[in-house]
Amino acid sequence: MKFIGKKILLLLFLSCLISLGQEKVIIFSINDMHSRIENFSKIKPLIDKEKVKGNKVFFVCAGDIFSGNPVVDNYTEKGFPIIDLLNRTGLDISVIGNHEFDYGQSVLSDRIAQANFPFVCANFSGGRGELSNVKGFEIIQKDGFSIAYIGAVETGNFGRYPLTHPKKVEGLFFTNPIKIFQDYRKINETSDIDLIVALTHLGKSGDEKILENFNYIDLVIGGHSNHIYGKRHENGYMIMSGKNLEMISKTTLSVYKGKIIDFKFEKIDLSYEGLERDSNIDLLIQTYKDNPSFYKKIGYSSINHTRAETGCFYTEAIREITNVDIVIQNSGGIRSNLKKGIITPIDIYSIDPFGNGIDSFLVTPAELKFFLKKYNKRYSISSRTNVELKLNGDIEVYRNGTKVGDDERISLAMNDYISNTYSKYLPEPLYAYPFTTAEYIIKYLNNHAGEILNFENCNRF
Known about the structure:
The chain is α/β, with parallel strands linked by helices. The protein has helices at about 1-20, 45-50, 70-75, 80-90, 105-115, 205-215, 280-290, 305-320, 345-350, 365-375, 415-420, 435-445; strands at about 25-30, 55-60, 95, 120, 125, 135-140, 145-155, 175, 195-200, 220, 230-235, 235-240, 245-255, 260-270, 300, 325-330, 340-345, 360-365, 380-385, 385-390, 395-400, 400-405, 410-415, 430, 450-455. It has a 6-stranded mixed sheet with strand order 4-3-2-1-13-14, with helices on one face. A 6-stranded mixed sheet has the order 6-7-9-10-12-11, with helices on one face. A 5-stranded mixed sheet has the order 19-16-23-18-24.
């Protein structure tokens, strides 16, 4: 009995020693905001409360700050409002997501200069250009506790580029976002770093691969696939916090001698009206949203359209404006549904936030077949021709009931994200339209003023 008593005392003594050496760290995390700003006023009070308690508090973002809200995307200085709000809420660091390139490199460079926090990305090189100063990792310190954040962005597009318009990443060089972590093992040897975090925009499967292959990474904070989780996986922990600033995650860590010994993940629903709001940030958000031109009536919809029905509306509008035989639109480029009631420009910019242009082509039936076979993605289509897919994979095109001959041409239009991404499967564009797809859809609605839109049961995929 005496031996057991001494053993218990020894365990209690060791437990006390560990407790004395423990560090309590809190990390607030967001990802894939896509320019949504409405819930920012609820974030600052959450973070400030933890700081008052004396905790070591970090606030980080796992990418895709931009693209998705006209208030931000069409501001005079594109993206300015959301960086301003992130500055005011005290963001410590962000990884560059694929949609950070949507405004172009010059604008991204301006937004990085505006930010009071660093952007990181280890698997790209800005060469001698405007993004050449972006580092692969940064060390952020709070009250003597330091975390090294290593950044990585997905490269899922053709040519190992991020999923953005190809023209927006010209001159940049991207490498494998998983293998790049091999180059940063040496950070683990730095004695004054307490934790090493992979701050990524790769998606859940990419984050899992990092933990499976690199045991020096303590935690992966990820984005891109819009999951919500906080869990242990293989050698470390991984978290992701949804999308569109619908929530913020709060992760509480107990760290002893550079190791996480306790992990608690909390989801905070930012739509909850009971959360405290910062009145100054509320006023600023309202100021940014106060643009009367966004809210004027340009049309009316008699139903709530599904995403497929919205695709019909979208392609029909572009086909009428361009006066071509066929228009296709990638499903991923339609980001919201056409809702019942008055239609305003902000509705159209929400459906189509990316600012893409339009390219038109003249193609033979064989060239159309070749392109569609290589494209092989989900898309909406509007056509004044009849396109028939045969069992053997051939395509036959009929115009006014007559088959289009092998040497005849079909006029085809699409947004220039598709045409640039798949340019090697298309002839040279016949014409590049000067305005954006959203602007042409607004023009279509103005041309049909007084009409009521209804694309119910349309499913042209």
